[in-house]
Design goal:
It is built from 4 helices and 22 strands. It is an alpha+beta fold.
């Protein structure tokens, strides 16, 4: 069916009411989501105040010029909730007639008592996971409830007490923090929620029609506790335990490193002592014996004169003494640099060649990098 109001066209369908302008552009759409109790429109008419009236299987609905919907049912005096298709008329003085399965309803829209008194809303039952809460406290007096995380599926039932039956009122609710606007429940008098751990504030209201500006008539605060492993005390304890364990672990690792370092230093100290002991023994024993051997050779040479075998013995003794000195130097010096090696090598050459007048010795240095040489490497270079 199609109607013409002041400017636009109204179309009644099995899916609600729609308003189009002359260019067939959709202006408004009214359906169950917008507040109609039923979408199968049987008849529709526009009254003297340019308000839309329509009938359906759940009574009569009025849509004012703001688009707000007011619903009427059998409990408010209608012949029945079900009406006949196309059975609507309006007299010249503005009286409306709607024909239904059990008779006729006639009224003047301006004379209807729309009962602007806000009804009293009471909570009648609260269930968790389909199990009703203990009834030692009246549900309508409860303001705060706490649930475990596994009991988070809630059903809240309520009704309005006023001049009409409870199912004649329009109900709406919102969860503060989750819903920015009211949610329209129409005539449904219960809310089903599945809440994550956290704190929630649920507001419920009832009225003649859905109203975005309506104030809450019942407020219920709900807290769903987190699982124990997400609770603040568990997280705090776990953090303290972790930090304590980390501290002990770091301390243990540091102590082990310290012990290893001390063991290494002790071993190096022991090696150093042993090296010094060997150096002293070599100097005191081997050096003394070698010097004595050379002295004995000199004594024999003074008695027997120059002798080839004696010269060999003396030469070998001198080589032994030189090698002994080198060994003692290695034991007493862990490392040297190129500059010190060069100075030592020049000193050695001068000492050796001073007995050979026919040989001259000159030296020059061009050290690019004064690198560190180990004692053994310095000795090998010196031998080369």
């Amino acid at each position: 069916m199609m109607l013409k109001n002041q400017k636009n066209w109204i179309l009644g369908t099995s899916k609600g009411l729609y308003e189009f302008n002359d260019q067939t552009i959709l202006i408004h759409a009214w359906n169950i989501q917008k507040g109609l109790p039923d979408e199968n429109i049987y008849s529709a008419i526009i009254d003297k105040d340019n308000q839309i009236w329509c009938s359906h299987d759940k009574g009569i609905s009025k849509i004012n010029q703001k688009g707000d919907i007011t619903n009427f049912s059998k409990s408010e005096g209608l012949q029945d909730d079900e009406f006949n298709y196309g059975a609507v008329a309006q007299t010249s003085d503005g009286q409306l007639f709607f024909g239904g399965v059990k008779g006729l309803n006639a009224f003047y829209p301006r004379q209807l008592n729309l009962d602007r008194v806000i009804p009293k809303l009471v909570i009648t039952k609260i269930s968790s996971n389909d199990n009703s809460l203990p009834t030692d406290t009246a549900f309508w007096n409860i303001q705060y409830l706490q649930f475990q995380q596994h009991d988070n599926r809630l059903k809240i039932q309520f009704t309005a007490i006023g001049s009409k039956l409870g199912n004649a009122y329009n109900y709406q609710y919102r969860v503060i923090g989750l819903d920015k606007e009211w949610k329209n429940l129409l005539h449904v008098r219960e809310i089903n929620l599945a809440l994550n751990p956290g704190k929630y504030k649920i507001e419920i209201a009832a009225g003649k029609q859905f109203d975005k500006e309506l104030l809450a008539q019942q407020t219920l605060e709900i807290e769903v506790l987190p699982p124990f492993y997400l609770s603040w005390w568990f997280l705090f304890s776990a953090t303290i335990s972790f930090l304590t364990s980390a501290w002990f672990l770091i301390k243990l690792i540091s102590q082990r490193k310290y012990r290893k370092k001390m063991q290494s230093l002790a071993m190096l100290e022991q090696l150093e002592k042993e090296r010094q002991r060997i150096s002293r023994d070599l100097h005191d024993n081997m050096g003394a014996y070698t010097s004595a051997l050379m002295a004995n050779v000199d004594k024999l040479k003074s008695v027997q004169g120059e002798h080839t075998e004696l010269n060999k013995i003396q030469s070998n003794a001198e080589q032994i003494l030189n090698s002994l000195r080198e060994t003692i130097w290695v034991l007493n010096n862990k490392e040297t640099n190129v500059s010190d090696f060069s100075d030592g090598f020049k000193t050695y050459c001068f000492n050796v060649l001073k007995n050979f007048e026919e040989i001259s010795f000159e030296s020059s240095e061009e050290i690019v990098s004064n690198s560190i040489l180990s004692a053994s490497a310095a000795i090998h270079l010196n031998k080369l």
